Known about the structure:
The complex is a heterodimer.
Chain A: H1 2-47, H2 53-60, H3 71-83, H4 93-124, H5 126-139, H6 144-157, H7 163-186, H8 191-199, H9 204-239, H10 248-257, H11 261-292
Chain B: E1 7-18, E2 21-33, E3 38-42, H1 49-56, E4 64-69, H2 74-79, E5 83-86, H3 98-109, H4 113-126, H5 142-155, E6 160-164, H6 172-189, E7 192-197, H7 200-206, E8 209-214, E9 219-225, H8 240-255
Amino acid sequence: MKSAGHTSSLFHRAAPVTLILLLLVAAWYVAAYALNAPYQRDLNARQGVTVTTGELVAQTMRQQKPTMPAPHQVAETLWKTTFGVPVTSRRSLVYHAWVTLSSTLLGFVFGTLLGVVIAVGITHVPALDRSFLPWIITSQTIPMLAVAPMIIVILAAVGVTGLIPKALISTYLSFFPVAVGMVKGLRSPEVMHLDLMHSYDASSWQTFWKLRVPASVPYFFTSIKVAIAASLVGAIVGELPTGAVAGIGSKLLAGSYYSQTIDIWAALIAGSVVAMLLVALVDVAGRLTARAMGARPS
Amino acid sequence: MSEKPVISASGLSLVFATHDGPVHALSNINLDIHEGEFVSLIGPSGCGKTTLLRVIADLEQPTAGTITVNGMTPHQARERRAYGYVFQQAALFPWRTIAANVGLPLEVMGLDKAEAQRRVKENIALVNLAGFEKKHPWQLSGGMQQRASIARALAVEPAMLLMDEPFGALDEIVRDHLNEQLLKLWAKTKKTVVFVTHSIPEAVFLSTRIVVMSPRPGRIHEIIDCNLGADRPLEIRETLEFQRIAQQVRDGLRAGHSYDD
């Protein structure tokens, strides 16, 4: 009974998603034709060939460097560079994804720790509450693309290169949602619960561990879901200005240097897949934690 | 009643400063409560009955007058865990099991594990929740949750219970049932109970004394003795004596302008 309900709910959730995906792919094909056709018509005219509309459509779907690659071209490249080459090869997307992932995860861990520390500070030190939040909000309005090269250059000047500088850019982007979410979470206990702890003459340390921390757990998972996606963006952005030789960011950069639009799109999709997997992983971790904490199954 | 009162308030006032000017939540309260009494505070919203309870519990600070709890200031009494407080809602922590919720104050007090376990078991049995130790709050009905919160208050083994409309959010059938159980519990444990309510039958059924309060400013209008004897089945509410006291409470509320527009 329970498993049947589960399957049908899975179906009910999967069906709309699949439908949207199909619509997107269809729109993508239309866009590929519309964007590639002018160049193809131009080319055909210069070469003096006349083609039927059907042939023109087919031609727009197999250009070497299309303005807009067709979905199957991207899929083919994705397949080849994911499964067709050894994962240690520099042509492998898995290799590049792993490079980006490793700095994403490192930056995410740093960012989460930093965000939690800031949130604890803000909720427990009134001076920080008043002085800190405007600054961390300001920190997020600075365009990352402009700051990232400076971080890389400055750190390189003091001898820090490799994974750490990229991870720090992820940290910069990911601490913010965690700090904001955890401030809200640590302040989420009801007045009644706080009064209850007060009536037991609980220390603020006890109130923190026995009430504020457990109450903030759902907020924690919501914010790290945002933070891990931001970390990935940070890692990719960190790879762009560094002339990085590996990573999804470097694939994007190389693709744009050589107008390899298909490669760019393949790398973009690889990045999205990694992001989805990471967010899904956090989601599952959140659900398991909620269940372990006795939450009502939803 | 020659012994010293457990709770003694004299000239007690509390003024809240608000944006619309001062609000006189409590005005010149004089009240002595003795050991083993069951005292109900009754009155309409805004009469200060909950505020008075919160002052006793050291959750609010009076602005004038004196109050002692067990001969100490409310602050000292709270530090010594002189009372168990039961809120309008059960206020159980959703991530803790019933047993862990009842054990919460004992953890805070730093009681050793064996003693804590004994008290948790004993008090869960006392409120008839044995067998539900491992359940989480959402798996229990509202009435059972409130019983668990009473067990949690009792686990501290306080000399008195402060109860702020503990059954106000429950339906009448559950409320009747819990009233009966609370009375048995009171007879068994001999604790002093201060009970805030806005239900006349509940106050008359449970109390040894009823403090009728009136609003604007919050003050004591009248104190009515109420002793229906130790053995009180729910049916006692049909007796003349019960109805006479209920009428007296109602008259007190009316004289205190509680029924004014």
